[in-house]
Specification:
The protein is an alpha+beta fold. It contains 8 helices and 20 strands. A hairpin with a 2-residue loop joins strand 4 and strand 5. The longest helix has 18 residues. The radius of gyration is 24 Å and the shape is globular.
């Protein structure tokens, strides 16, 4: 975490929080502590329980079991307006008939703040999100990115203890989505505010989070910093959901002082690992950690598919171990064609034995 926590920022604690919809368990005893000033992302596929968890923190969904704390106060059964949190929605939820200024000012006016206070707070927050001079426009006259900034400004102007984001960028195109996630992260760090962010986009989660909570079928599958989850996934689900992955059969040949001697096809690697018994194991090999060559040693294969992406080329290579995905950033041999015979070399920094996957 690079930002300094705002003294107003609150710790959020979930203790064995659960939620059912009829016979369906949407959230299954989720426990989580989010430190003041931290941005934590709830990541997972549709239906994993991430949005329901967020809505329970916001008070928009009743808690079926467990407890929620914001700061020192238990808020499990408090209404949304008593929790001192604000949410940025996927749809932005701007009032179409109100100007940018009045959209941002709405919550302050509900609280009957003085006009002088409203004017200053709204102008300050619009400056903060890069929207000065647009106070008089209606939402329909704004781009998607500008509407998103207004939605963030409307949440921030309330000076909440916790800021909640529910898939806030999913309505934007890819280039704008990337820019807006950077803006949200920089703003959150500058303000030092506690934030909980929900997304199904793993690239988005990796880019903005202090920590990521990977959820699967209502449960927490793994919690960790982005680099930790990418390099040391605790199970196959996390490995598949965080980045592209190849799962390949391998052999553990030796184990000594936290280092495993592992053979993948004809190649032997020495990898840092928790204790593993000798014998078969499944390894995760990241596509960017496999070198592809047209000659030399390595696992033999034949290119089946190729996609040229400008800064890289993606290959699917047929091998005796099954199809292997490769991302080639160097492109030292140019872009290779389907049918080309190749040799693959696995780089130790991108290969990880999967726990319990013998």
């Amino acid at each position: 975490m690079t930002g300094q926590a705002n003294p107003q920022a609150a710790r959020v604690v979930l203790e064995a929080v659960s939620k059912r919809f009829g016979q369906t368990v949407a959230v299954d005893e989720v426990s989580l502590t989010i430190e003041p000033g931290e941005l934590v992302t709830l990541l997972g596929p549709s239906g994993c329980g991430k949005t329901t968890t967020l809505r329970m923190v916001a008070g928009l969904e009743t808690v079926g079991g467990g407890r929620i704390f914001i700061g020192d106060a238990e808020v499990t059964h408090l209404p949304p307006n008593a929790r001192d949190v604000t949410m940025v929605f996927q749809s932005y939820a701007l009032f179409p008939h109100l100007t940018v200024f009045e959209n941002v000012a709405y919550g302050l006016r509900v609280l009957k703040r003085s006009e002088a206070e409203v004017q200053k707070a709204v102008r300050d927050v619009l400056e903060m999100v890069g929207m000065p001079g647009l106070e008089g426009r209606n939402p329909s006259a704004l781009s998607g990115g500008q509407q998103q900034r207004v939605a963030v400004a409307r949440a921030l102007v309330m000076q909440p203890k916790v800021l909640l984001f529910d898939e806030p960028l999913s309505n934007l195109d890819a280039k704008l989505r990337k820019r807006m996630r950077e803006e949200i992260r920089l703003l959150q760090q500058r303000l030092g505010i506690t934030a909980i962010y929900v997304t199904h986009d793993q690239a988005e989660a990796l880019a903005i989070s202090d920590r990521i909570v990977v959820m699967d079928r209502g449960r927490v599958s793994q919690i960790g910093a982005p680099l930790e989850l990418y390099k040391a996934p605790g199970n196959r689900f996390v490995a598949e959901f965080i980045g592209e992955a190849n799962f390949l059969p391998a052999q553990v040949e030796s184990m000594e002082n936290g280092w495993a001697g592992i053979r993948i096809g004809p190649q032997r690697l020495r990898l840092q690992s928790q204790p593993l018994p000798a014998g078969p194991v499944t390894v995760l090999a990241r596509p960017e950690a496999i070198r592809i060559r047209t000659e030399g040693d390595g696992l033999a294969g034949t290119i089946q598919k190729v996609s040229y992406l400008g800064s890289s080329a993606d290959y699917t290579v047929g091998t005796d171990l099954g199809p292997i995905l490769i991302t080639d950033y160097a492109m030292g041999s140019g872009v290779l064609s389907p049918g080309t015979a190749v040799r693959l070399e696995f780089l130790a920094h991108g290969v990880y034995p999967l726990p319990g996957a013998q």
